[in-house]
């Protein structure tokens, strides 16, 4: 039974204070402002300096350069970085350093050459600009094409036997040239880039260098894609650069093309896989139009593994 003292003690308890009102929610952090990416550009044969920005892929880059100089985008054959010369080691590929200077090489003279295919290989390595033009990236010493003085590195291949190949990818053009019959003459219609005075007489850089020149500046690059939006990324790691170089060499030996963006995509794909079978399935899903042969996929997988071991 409760005593009077207990009841009095309970009555003397301090009243419970009301809960404090909830503190107002903190405003969400403002999104990090994306810096404006402004690049300087010139026409390789000579022009004032223009500034371009706001492009998200390769085709838009060409359109912005064309707009800056009042020309049609189709006039641009390819771009080089930090050099106005037709130097394939400086070719704009999948990445632009945020401080790189872009030189656009535009259409110059058109020429036609007759070639007789006396060997299986012509000695050409083909690449493309990601916007519809395939062009010559390398000429092998002592090859059929090397003996034809009129054909130069940097020439865009516009037609084979009067059949226009504008809009074809590099691997399609390389396949057409491989399939031409031996001992039968054929005609190439070529467009050479317009040259500045100090470039006249320059024909080729046909020696195979151990590494492609880096085209990035600083710690970040703008990675361009032939399809999809550009992204700002860290400079590729030593492994990524070495693996991409090895894959690009295999693309040249198997298919007669060089394509740093394609090589980089294949290396990125390999990171998501743990076996060559899984790697092959992933390649089919993202690059199925190339129809890579099985033996090529196996060699690419091995080359990427060797690059990983070499870079620790």
UniProtKB/TrEMBL annotation:
Superkingdom classification of source: Eukaryota
Pfam families: GIPC1_GH1, GIPC1_GH2, PDZ
Domain PDZ: 112-179
Residue ranges of the region described as Disordered: 1-31
PANTHER family linked to this entry: PDZ DOMAIN-CONTAINING PROTEIN GIPC3 (PTHR12259:SF2), RGS-GAIP INTERACTING PROTEIN GIPC (PTHR12259)
Record's compositionally biased regions (Pro residues): 17-30
Family: Belongs to the GIPC family.
Gene3D superfamilies to which the protein is assigned, alphabetical: 2.30.42.10
Biased composition (Basic and acidic residues): 1-13
Lineage, highest ranks first: Eukaryota, Metazoa, Chordata, Craniata, Vertebrata
Coiled coil: none
Protein's recorded name: GIPC PDZ domain containing family member 3
Gene coding for it: GIPC3
């Amino acid at each position: 039974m409760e005593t009077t003292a207990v009841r009095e003690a309970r009555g003397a308890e301090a009243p419970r204070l009301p809960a404090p009102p909830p503190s107002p929610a903190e405003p969400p952090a403002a999104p990090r402002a994306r810096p404006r990416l402004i690049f300087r550009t010139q026409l390789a044969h000579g022009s004032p300096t223009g500034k371009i920005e706001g492009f998200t892929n390769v085709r838009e880059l060409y359109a912005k350069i064309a707009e800056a100089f009042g020309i049609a985008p189709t006039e641009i054959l390819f771009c080089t970085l930090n050099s106005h010369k037709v130097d394939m080691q400086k070719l704009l590929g999948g990445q632009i350093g945020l401080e790189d200077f872009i030189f656009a090489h535009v259409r110059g003279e058109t020429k036609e050459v007759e070639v007789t295919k006396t060997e299986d290989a012509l000695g050409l390595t083909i690449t493309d600009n990601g916007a519809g033009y395939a062009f010559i990236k390398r000429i092998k010493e002592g090859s059929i094409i090397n003996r034809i003085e009129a054909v130069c590195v940097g020439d865009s291949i516009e037609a084979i036997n009067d059949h226009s190949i504008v809009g074809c990818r590099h691997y399609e053009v390389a396949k057409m040239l491989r399939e031409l019959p031996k001992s039968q003459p054929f005609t190439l219609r070529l467009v050479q880039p317009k040259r500045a005075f100090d470039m006249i007489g320059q024909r080729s850089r046909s020696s195979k260098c151990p590494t492609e020149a880096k085209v990035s500046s600083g710690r970040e690059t703008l990675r361009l894609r032939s399809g999809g939006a550009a992204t700002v990324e860290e400079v590729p790691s030593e492994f990524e650069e070495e693996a991409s170089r090895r894959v690009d060499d295999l693309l040249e030996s198997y298919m007669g093309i060089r394509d740093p963006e394609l090589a980089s995509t294949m290396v990125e794909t390999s990171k998501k896989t743990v076996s060559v079978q899984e790697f092959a399935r992933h390649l089919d899903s993202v690059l199925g139009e190339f129809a890579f042969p099985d033996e090529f996929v196996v060699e690419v997988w091995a080359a990427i593994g060797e690059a990983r071991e070499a870079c620790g």
